[in-house]
Each structure stands twice: as structure tokens, then as C-alpha cells.
Amino acid sequence: MHSIRFPSSARRRLLLAAGAALCLAAPAFAQAQAYPTKPVRLVVPYPPGGPTDIVARLVAQKLSEQLGQQFIIDNRPGAGANTGAELVARSPADGYTLVVATTAHAINPSLFKNLGYSLAKDFAPVSLLTSGPLVIVANPALPAKNVAELIALAKARPGELNFASSGNGQSTHLSAELFASMAGVKMNHIPYKGSAPALTDTMGGQTQLMFDTMLSAMPHVKGGKLKALAVTSATRSPVAPDVPTVAESGLPGYEAIAWNGLLAPAHTPPEVLARLSGALKKVLAAPDVKDKFEAQGFAATWTSPEDFGRFMTAEIDKWAKVVKVSGATVD
To answer: Residue 324 and residue 331: Cα distance in Å, rounded?
Structure first.
């Protein structure tokens, strides 16, 4: 075979071009391989002490151990969890500012008319972190002992049963609206600013029931101040194995889960996303992490960035239908 020979001037130009390309590619590759080289800010769009904050702090601690740099929690509550999300959407796409997203962020595109960001366009999915059911809790004086009896009672007394929520448009609100829509019943929504006052009034009888996280509600069930009617997941929760699902106890096909996931700004380098994804896979598989989340009613749930993206798209579509049917609005 004859080799192709270039004139010396052409060879020099090719070598210079190749060298320039390598110089451009090398820093980006080295940066991704070395990531993180400084502390990472993990924005939590909720106040300290809540379920999402608890999840974020454990994940931040374990990611710090995995990747050798601090992951620092930055609580930025407000505007239905939109304040923190918008901050991250406008941050540099370098992997050093991330946000913990929740079910609320899949609901908000259909609930708010003028969001300052697009969940689909302004973020790069990394992974789910946790998923878990809500639990339907009721004042002990409510005659219904299970979902079938609750539906019968609501049909007999249309618009008379009051259900509390942690706020308009929250998963605690729309999970109940989904229930009412599927069951063909009308219940009266009483929104609160957070789970704590909503639970207090449910225990006091001002409202009759609530859909809430297991972390917030189950201590009151164990203390006898509330009764648990059902969990909202497709399968029973290991935290409360004796509590049936909504689907098995009177409303087949019903499912609503609360979830947390990790997002980066759009256009974050794929190598950085892959490094975060790989570290999270190890973190969420660790027995101590799984045990701590399970004790709070969550399952540690790793997904690939692609699967998490598909999951969020499905959630946005699902909750858009519930918002439309329920006529839910924000203050």
C-alpha cells in the first residue's frame, strides 16, 4: 500500500490544528475528571427541618464523603418552592450549584402562570433521590375506618368533609384532589402554611382528614391522635405494613407519591453529570442511607439521568390533568 504524503507546509498546518483542538479539549476533560475542585452549593427550596431538607442534608454529607469536597446546604424557600429553583436555573452550568426538586416542581408548571424558569428546558436531570407515599390520616372521631367507608361518607355528605393541606397546589393538596376526582366525591379544601398547623387542626377536629408525608403524620398516628386510613403508593410501605394502600382498599388504580430528585442547570457538562450520577448511585445503595430514609417513610431511589428526565415528564403531565380537573389555584 502507498502511504499518503502531505507537503511539509500542509503537515505543519494539520499538526497545529490538531494541537489547538487538544488544547481546547484538554481543560474541559480535565475539569470534568477533577470535579469537584471546590465546594458545591446544594439549594433546598424549603425551610430547614422539613422532609426535603432532611433528605438533602444526608445526601450532601454522603456526596461530600464520596467526592472529597463539601456539599453545602443553602435553604431558599418561597413561592411554592420556585424561588430556589429559579436561582439554580440562572446559575452557571458548571456543576457547582444544584437543586433538590420535589413533586411540587412537577405540579408548578400547570399551577403558576408566569414561572421564572422551565423545568423541561432550564435543568439537566441527575437522579431521583427518594420516593414514598403520603398517608391519609383522619381525626379519630371521623366515622370512616377505611377508604371504602370514607368514600361512602363523602358521597353521603357532599362538600361537608374538610381536608387540610400544607398549601394550595402542594402534593398534600393535589393528592387529595386526585382521590376526590377518581372517587367521584366532593370535599372541601382547607389550605395551611405548612404541615404542622394542618395536622394540628386535623387532630383538633377543625378539619377531618389530611394527606401528608409519613415523616410528619405517623408520629401522631402512633400517639393515637390521628388514625391512618391508607397510603397513597401502589404497594404498602415498610414503615407501616399494616396500613393498606388506597388502591387495595376502595379505589383501584389510585397512586400518588412524594419524591425528591437532584437537578443541575441545563448545559452542565455531561461528564460532570455522569460523575454526580455515579456518586449518587453508591450513596443511595449504602445500607445506612437506605435505613435512614426508610425510617422516614422514603425509599432511596437512584435512576439514570435519562430515566429521571422521563419520570419528570410523566409527572408534569399527570399533575397538569389534576390541576385542570380540580381547578386548583395559588394565592
So the answer is: 16
